[in-house]
Design brief:
Blueprint lengths: L20 E9 L2 E8 L5 E6 L15
Antiparallel strand pairs: 1-2, 2-3
The protein binds zinc ion.
Zinc ion binds next to loops.
Amino acid sequence: MTGSPATRSAPAPVIAHEHGWLVESAHRTSEGIVQYVRCAECGVRRVDIAAVPVVVPAAASREFG
Ligand SMILES: [Zn+2]
């Protein structure tokens, strides 16, 4: 029996990993802070929009009692 040896040609599965996002650039918009991030491992890119940072909550009233 002749034939090519069985080749292991299983498709390489996409290795799931936790992307390690690096912020390439960011700028503020009226909607928040847009961040262009890239995974250092696989190079995929993503755009994040972070809400405008919440300012430190101010006391609505003075302390009393
Ligand atoms: Zn990745």
